[in-house]
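Record type: monomer structure entry
Structure origin: computed from sequence
Chain ID: A
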Amino acid sequence: MPPAESPDDPDPMITPDRSNSSSQAMDSKQAMGSVIIYTDGAAEPNPGPGGYGVVMLAGKHRKELSGGFRRTTNNRMELMGVIVGLEALTKPCRVTLFSDSKYVVDSVERGSVHRWKKNNWFRTKADKAKNADLWARFLDVFEKHVVKFKWVKGHAGVPENERCDELAVAAAQSGDLSPDVGYISETANGATQFPTNPDSEELLSEGLDVAESDLLPKSKGIILATDSSPGNQVSHKEAGEPCRKCGVALVKKPTKPKARKAGQTYFYEWYLSCPGCSTMYLVEDAKRSL
């Protein structure tokens, strides 16, 4: 149950902090408002389209937040929910935060995230900490509040946890998804598997001019099969050829049917995909005129 609210206690989720010094609020901990936050994250498949859900409770006040990304991971969405919840607070608060993510709760409660930051975001001398962009963002807002994490078992009938799950899944399945820039950057730099661009299928079905090959590196995961730029001298034409990035045999896949846009003059009927590194190759023979 959320804590009882004093009639003189404003909603910390709505009312801006008008004090002359935020440090005074931090020093006088008894003056802090109390907030309960539940969070959850989801990605299906993992990695894949993902979302987060947040329920915030302060006395009689309640706020729900959610959002989604085209391609991300479950752990990133679990952490994103925590970040969004804390960032929604308008003044320093005492926060009890419930999450069903052992990854998030243990990383904070055991002090792992502070060690990673101290070590320039390395878990060990050789291994980088994953999701460093989000952990850095988390620490920025975490340090403004007094936060106590509590792990709660997921899908165990805890009402607000279940509601967060509903919000996260609904966000992941909505059509209004943003690219997870941090995930794309991390995977492109080799921290995890190189991803398929979230926009790849859309770009293929809508048409991508081969003459614009100089723009392709900005679209991670899409490479012209005939690209002859330095380091990419191998041309791909058919399924079964070894991927020039990782050597795994390529497979042929059809593009998804999609309504054509005004002025569109061509599209790609199929493409070559690498099961190993998820790179998509555009083949000239697959280009169809409209």
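Annotation 1: Helices lie at 22-27, 74-87, 102-109, 112-118, 132-142, 159-173, 181-188, 200-206.
Annotation 2: The chain has two domains: 22-187, 194-289.
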